[in-house]
Amino acid sequence: MSWTQDLKYSTRMLLRSPGFTAIAVLSLALGIGANTAIFSIVKGVLIQPLPYDQPHQLVTVSERLMEEGNLVIAGRDAPGLLPVSAPNFYDWRDENKVFSGMSYYFPFQSTTTGVAEPERLVATSVSGEFFDVMGVQPLYGRGFTMEEDQPGRNGVAVISYGLWQRWFGGSHDAIGKTFKVDGNQAEIIGIAPPGFDFPDGTEVWNPGAIPATVAPRNFNFLSVVARIKADTSLQGAQDGMDSLARAFEGRYPATSEGRGVWLTPLENKIVGDVRPALLVLWGAVGLVLLIACSNVANLMLAKSSTRRAETAIRMAVGAGPIRLLRQFLTESMLLGLVGGTFGLILAWFALESLLPMVQSQLPRVNEIRLDSFVLFFAAGVSLVSGILFGLAPAYQFTQQNLNEALKDGA
Fold this sequence. Notes:
The chain is α+β, with helices and mostly antiparallel strands. The chain has 13 helices and twelve strands.
């Protein structure tokens, strides 16, 4: 019952000072809103696991150029790392002992026709085991078979959930429909689950049917993803592929000498260089919140001079320090929760405005949202902020000289 009384009294006190309350709420809303918006981005990009089965087992596989045992710079994406040649991919897939599956993927810009208006989108040619390696099952229909990953038999496609909604309005009749990808006929055999767009916003997947003899062993053009066996560590998989690379140097000296293999966790590959920038940004907005709490604490300290007599009278009639501390902390936490509520509104507007503008620069944008976890984070930040800026004024109230305060009041 006393908590209810504290809450009612705190509400009345805040309403009696609308100017102070408005300034404090605005300061907190900006700090909490910025933290909530950035945390939702950090959670979606860095914390949220990849939406695949056992995502920690997924790695990208690259060739690397070696010079006296060290990586040398070759290309823009990473020092010494190259895509994989078709002959190496097939030999690695057949001879490795550390992966439960491997698949290549080759994204490209394509023009689709035959269903709606001609549309330019990202399509990706993959090997037949792609969806099995990724641990993703189509929402409707099926994935590819190894038989369909053959020249002349690869006229099938899986389309993204978003494309299914745009073209067919979510109708199950889409399965079996045909369309053209850059003039090549494709039958829709599956619908990818919502949120799956690997790699790079892909909306159409089709079997690549790329033969091992399509290019020389030192012609690198395929991106490769693999799933490490459950009983094998990342370092164990790297050691196994290093052994295979050394065997290839002896087997194909003209094209494989000085070339190794490099495994990168898929999450690191997707996130790239965004991680440190996001963490620095999160730290910066955390400082903004601390400054806001400091400003509100100063406001409350300045306001405390008008409440000395009230506090003294309550202490004179029997209110103890703990009782008064609870009252003032209730008031500050209520102020924090009100600021947090407005902060959530600001965070929602910020995300709605900013995410479309950074969609091409920020990975995993589709997984950034104000979900229940973010709401709990915002509520926790609001309460902790209320305690932080309320402790100093509350302590000052409870430590004042009772006689002096009563004299001042008289």
